[in-house]
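Colleagues,

For the teaching module next term, I've prepared a clean inverse folding example: a structure given as tokens, and then the sequence designed for it. I'd like students to try predicting residues themselves before seeing the answer, so please don't circulate the second half yet.
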């Protein structure tokens, strides 16, 4: 299984970053501007991200340990990601600063021609989280 591991230092408190991962109104600020999510994130809930075209992943929350770890499994909306795991860990990294670790564990090998957008705004994840402060 292939894994991508990202580490992003964010100029925001860890609770602000956690909110960007788990609160529907803040989730829309860092990946897609169109998100359908339950008002409270919990194991078993689904979040639907809408982009242009056929890239519209639906993520099921499979682990939730506030305010440190969130794990999703792709259950629909983008066949190459089906059953892939997305793991987020948030930790304080100093005053008003945090570190976000993000792993994407692919369930299947991706073809070299498969591509996906990681942001809808052109900004970085760290900038999006910092703007939510």
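(Answer key — instructors only)
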């Amino acid at each position: 299984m292939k894994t991508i591991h990202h580490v992003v230092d964010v100029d925001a408190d860890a609770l602000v970053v956690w909110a960007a991962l788990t609160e529907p109104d803040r989730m829309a600020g860092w990946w897609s501007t169109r998100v359908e999510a339950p008002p409270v994130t919990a194991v078993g809930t689904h979040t639907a991200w809408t982009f242009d075209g056929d890239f519209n992943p639906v993520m099921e929350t499979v682990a939730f340990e506030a305010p440190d770890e969130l794990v999703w499994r792709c259950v629909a909306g983008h066949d190459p990601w089906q059953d892939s795991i997305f793991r987020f860990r948030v930790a304080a990294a100093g005053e008003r600063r945090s570190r976000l670790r993000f792993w994407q564990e692919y369930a299947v090998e991706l073809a070299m021609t498969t591509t996906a957008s990681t942001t809808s705004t052109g900004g970085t994840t760290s900038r999006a989280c910092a703007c939510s402060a």
